[in-house]
Specification:
Elements: E1 2-3, E2 18-26, E3 29-31, H1 35-45, E4 56-57, E5 65-66, E6 69-70, E7 79-81, E8 87-93, H2 97-103, E9 108-111, E10 114-125, E11 132-137, H3 149-161, E12 169-178, E13 185-193, H4 197-206, E14 220-221, H5 225-231
């Protein structure tokens, strides 16, 4: 853990050049580790996303526990029960919003032995919160610092500095593996606090590290330490 309290934030309004689109989905359950299957299905439906800067696909996520239900361990042979409130989210440039809202609803995405049908979508601006959380961060090179918390934080601080973002408060979680045909990708969750609003917006727009189509490096508002704990599962 790294914590340094010495800078206040300033008020700015979140721009809309990069936004999230939240789509309703119709499916019963999906693998806990569905990142590669989802990215592959999205690329089939939207071939341009592999070349478009600023595009990221959020992993489908449900609560870590609900009515006594515990989130299964990460893996392609464990499953998440999906409710009607669960959304499929993409982070995209504003210019792509009309195309996505028209093209994606009604699309059936095949996720191995399960399928997901995309429903209507709505636009959501990026957050103006200055505490952010990413469930999966894969740094470049991805193996540096993954097994050691302090080394991982040092690697993250270096990557953030290259984006002109200062790491003031940071907490990382344990290692998660994302399965791909080329081997598992090692990631960690990462919470950052004490960002300026300008840094927060920049980090959400640009992401951190590699594999944004696999849900990596995507920062969302941080709502408490439980988010970090859930991201480790």
């Amino acid at each position: 853990m790294f914590w340094n309290d010495d800078e206040s934030t300033e008020q700015i309004r979140a721009p809309d050049d990069i936004v999230d689109i939240l789509f309703a989905i119709d499916c019963k359950r999906i693998p806990v580790d569905h990142a590669h299957a989802l990215a592959t299905a999205m690329q089939r439906a939207l071939p341009w996303i592999t070349e478009e800067s600023g595009v990221a696909v959020h992993s489908v996520h449900v609560a870590g526990s609900q009515n006594g239900w515990e989130r299964p361990e990460h893996g392609t042979d464990s499953f998440l029960s999906v409710s009607r409130r669960t959304k499929l989210a993409m982070r995209v440039p504003k210019c792509r919003v009309p195309d996505l809202l028209q093209a994606l609803p009604g699309t059936r995405l095949d996720l191995g032995n399960h399928s997901l049908t995309v429903g209507p979508g709505k636009v959501k601006l990026l957050s103006t919160e200055t505490a952010l959380f990413a469930r999966y961060v894969a740094l470049d090179p991805e193996l540096i610092g993954v097994h050691d918390e302090e080394a991982f934080l040092a690697s993250a601080a270096h990557a953030l500095a290259a984006m002109d973002i200062r790491m003031r408060k940071a907490l990382c979680g344990k290692t998660n593996l994302l399965a791909t045909p080329d081997g598992a990708i090692r990631t960690r969750s990462l919470m950052l606090a004490g960002l300026t609003l300008d840094e927060s917006i920049r980090l959400q727009q640009q992401g951190l590290g590699k594999y944004p189509l696999l849900g990596c490096g995507i920062f969302i508002p941080h709502k408490g330490i439980d988010s970090v704990k859930q991201g480790d599962r």
